[in-house]
Design brief:
The structure is a homodimer. Chain A is α/β, with parallel strands linked by helices. Helix content of chain A is 45%, strand content 16%.
């Protein structure tokens, strides 16, 4: 499982405060701790006014690179900011994200075409988030056309099928699981990613829904997730699921993760 | 999800102590608390020497029936004990269990044929636990032949595919998930059950494996489980999974379970 550590995000109040107060140690600690907890990428999202977004991104990226070699996921709603920010990174990371909305892909794909950068791509377009699985797969096909055009190998893409909140659903996540399976069937080397928390919007006891969602999505082929790697219960379930779905022969990774303290005993 | 509350079992040291000391209140509390936590059956397993098993079963069954109307799962390796014990129950429950081993089915099925008793059936026979999925399905077919012979409707059966420990597996639980899917495909009204803990034998941090296993097995069609209903994290994941797999429209049961305190907030 590819873990994209989500904790450096200005939408989180404690991070917003650290950004406002230029608390460098707070940011460095978040980078270090997520890296030690097994994150494969450290997401960096400023979530500040666009007028100061680029300088904030630079400040955050520099702090992350002070303390870890874990690659960065440059995260902004603006493709222009992503394209600028990735130049500040010492090594290839992940662009988070493009979609078929506006000119995002045509801005980002040429920039990363001849690099080792990976890229998250959301299955939405200028009409918003598709209601049906079929429409999501049409957006996916359009993204893959663009990837082909710019010579981006499927193995560099993390497709986010955009899970919607469960509380308004009559049939659970079956549509999304089918979309994930179809994507992996068409491109076995592609990654499927997603956040763990949209699914539980408006529900109580959200972490149960988030955790069960990740387990189920992994069984359908999700192999990348934007989560908090410091959440030991989620990490334990992820390692356990890898073993259960046959991705961890003899549970070697599970046992190794336990020994490293990535999850540990649970009540 | 049908919850078979597992806590009244003489194999658990505190219960063995209560049996030895005739601590009736301890047993009554276990029955009451599991019932309040949402158990659909209260499993009663003496796990004592055969010479005193029947009298112990009677003592336990009477105590459970003192405090709750939740049906009992009479649980013994001996079909004779099960057949005797079920007569002590005030209302139909679950026989736990039969298999194609020895004469178990031919002892139990005639006794429950014209009743509303349900029955757990393990997919093993006199040669032990089958290694392959194919062989498990052959044992299943033999059980269903017997069910037909004794006129036991599939909806009264809880088939336990017998999950083996993950740590010796090279491909996870894919075989078992396929067996579960096939069973439900052949008999949509049948129940598929199982314990949550065999899977994690010999592993550290077992609860992660148990929890992820239940989520995955539910997505394949498991709709009954022998678990501890007082374990709030497991119960939260079960309720969440029901909603995620489309068995709980608009999450009404999930929200109701939360309000009843069956799981509650989680860190």
């Amino acid at each position: 499982m590819i873990i994209i550590g989500e904790k450096i995000n200005g939408a989180i109040p404690s991070v917003a405060k650290a950004i406002a107060e230029k608390d460098a140690d707070f940011i460095r600690d978040l980078a270090r701790s997520q890296s030690e907890a097994g994150a494969n990428f450290i997401d960096v999202c400023a979530s500040v006014d666009v007028s100061v977004e680029m300088e904030t991104m630079k400040w955050l990226i520099d702090l992350v690179q002070d303390v870890t070699e874990t690659p960065i996921a440059v995260d902004s709603p603006s493709a222009e900011i992503c394209a600028e920010a990735l130049k500040l990174c010492n090594r290839p990371g992940l662009v988070n994200s493009v979609s078929m909305e506006g000119k995002k892909i045509d801005l980002i794909f040429p920039v990363i075409a001849d690099t080792k950068w990976e890229c998250a791509a959301l299955l939405c377009d200028d009409t918003g988030i598709p209601k049906s699985g079929k429409k999501r797969l049409e957006v996916f096909a359009a993204i893959m056309e663009k990837a082909k055009e710019y010579n981006i190998d499927p193995s560099r893409l993390h497709i986010d099928p955009l899970v919607e909140m469960l509380c308004t659903s009559e049939e659970g996540i079956n549509i999304i699981l089918d979309v994930i399976r179809e994507i992996k069937k068409q491109y076995p080397t592609i990654h499927v990613t997603g956040g763990a928390s949209n699914i539980s919007f408006n529900l109580p006891a959200r972490k149960f829904v988030n955790q069960a969602f990740i387990v189920l999505a992994m069984s359908a082929g999700m192999d990348s997730a934007i989560i908090n790697p410091l959440h030991k219960h989620m990490m334990g379930l992820i390692y356990a699921t890898e073993a259960l779905i046959g991705m961890d022969e003899y549970c070697m990774e599970f046992i190794g993760g336990y020994r490293k303290g990535l999850f540990g005993p649970v009540k």
